[in-house]
DNA sequence: AGGGGACAGCGTCAGGTGAT
DNA sequence: ATCACCTGACGCTGTCCCCT
């Protein structure tokens, strides 16, 4: 819809850069067809769809625009972009994984053993806490995938981390056991636990594919994969929408700049006209 | 108050693309 | 060929605003 109009109404030079050779040919074909729209009424639907579907990502487009227009920020690459989902964490060392609790808090699990917990509301490093896992050796195979957080039966928050461990939010802010750092003030505390009881609703632990035998296990594995896929796609869709909004903003600012330039050029033209053609009374 | 249209945001599906 | 990722499209929901 939006992209269709964008592609069919005009071809921006930047978009041209992303067209592969045969793609350009096809676009040219469409352009000709558009010109002779009165004579040839309909463009082949499939051809059109094929062309339209081959679009560059918003990141690519915006980065091109950014290099074109100074002052427009570039969309960062994948790694920093992931960290960018949490402004509090982005200033820290790049973690390997970032997870968000159901209350909006972020947990970053670094390459080493540190777990950082941050509140999106707090600014900078202030909202960050570091936990150290003492038993974070090599995770057992098949159990390294994190699943999303949920409320457990006892009202605490749980989210699973690589290594078949569980990060559990304490209801009281008492001093934490020795295997974790204590939090202070109003901040909740978290514990690293082994998942002792049955998994909370909505949370499925990763299992080693080799351990699957019965049809029920296979079905559970399929469900788990589906949940994981949906979760990833959910996040991807959010990110895509964010990029799209950024892209539209970028285009709007570009329009504003070009309008100003255009106005200046018209004024300059008028001035030159006045100079070159003296008034004849 | 409440009905309804416009709009934004979200989750999901389907299909394309690029990397391996 | 396979996989992960990206994004358009669709349907749903919540919010805001206007009108009756």
From TrEMBL:
Record-linked SUPFAM superfamilies: Leucine zipper domain (SSF57959)
Location within or outside the cell: Nucleus
Keyword field: Activator, Coiled coil, DNA-binding, Nucleus, Phosphoprotein, Repressor, Transcription, Transcription regulation
Keyword GTP-binding annotated: no
InterPro entries, per database record: bZIP, bZIP_sf, CREB1-like_pKID, Leuzip_CREB
Entry annotated with the keyword tRNA processing: no
Cellular compartments per GO CC: ATF4-CREB1 transcription factor complex
Chief localization: nucleus
GO terms assigned for molecular function: DNA-binding transcription factor activity, RNA polymerase II-specific; RNA polymerase II cis-regulatory region sequence-specific DNA binding
Domain annotation BZIP: ranges: 223-274
Location of the KID domain: 25-84
Leader sequence residues: none
Coiled-coil segments: 248-275
Family: Belongs to the bZIP family.
Protein name: cAMP-responsive element modulator
Primary gene name: CREM
């Amino acid at each position: 819809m939006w992209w269709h109009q964008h592609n069919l109404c005009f071809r921006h030079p930047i978009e041209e850069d992303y067209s592969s050779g045969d793609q350009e040919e096809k676009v040219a074909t469409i352009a000709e067809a558009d010109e002779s729209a009165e004579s040839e009424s309909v463009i082949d639907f499939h051809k059109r769809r094929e062309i339209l579907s081959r679009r560059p990502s918003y990141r690519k487009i915006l980065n091109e625009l950014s290099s074109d227009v100074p002052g427009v920020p570039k969309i960062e690459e994948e790694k920093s972009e992931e960290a960018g989902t949490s402004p509090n964490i982005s200033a820290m060392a790049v973690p390997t994984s970032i997870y968000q609790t159901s209350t909006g808090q972020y947990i970053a699990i670094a390459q080493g053993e540190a777990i950082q917990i941050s509140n999106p509301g707090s600014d900078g490093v202030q909202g960050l806490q570091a936990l150290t896992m003492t038993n974070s050796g090599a995770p057992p195979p098949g159990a390294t995938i994190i699943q999303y957080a949920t409320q457990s039966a006892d009202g605490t928050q749980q989210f699973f981390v690589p290594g078949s461990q569980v990060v559990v939010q304490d209801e009281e802010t008492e001093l934490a056991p020795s295997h974790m750092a204590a939090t202070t003030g109003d901040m909740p505390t978290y514990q690293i636990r082994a998942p002792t009881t049955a998994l909370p609703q909505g949370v499925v632990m990763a299992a080693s594919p080799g351990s699957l035998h019965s049809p029920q296990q296979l079905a559970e594995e399929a469900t788990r994969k589906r949940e994981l896929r949906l979760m990833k796609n959910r996040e991807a869709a959010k990110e895509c929408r964010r990029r799209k909004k950024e892209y539209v903003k970028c285009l709007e600012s570009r329009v504003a700049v070009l309008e100003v330039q255009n106005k200046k050029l018209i004024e300059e033209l008028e001035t030159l006209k006045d100079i070159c053609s003296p008034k004849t009374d």
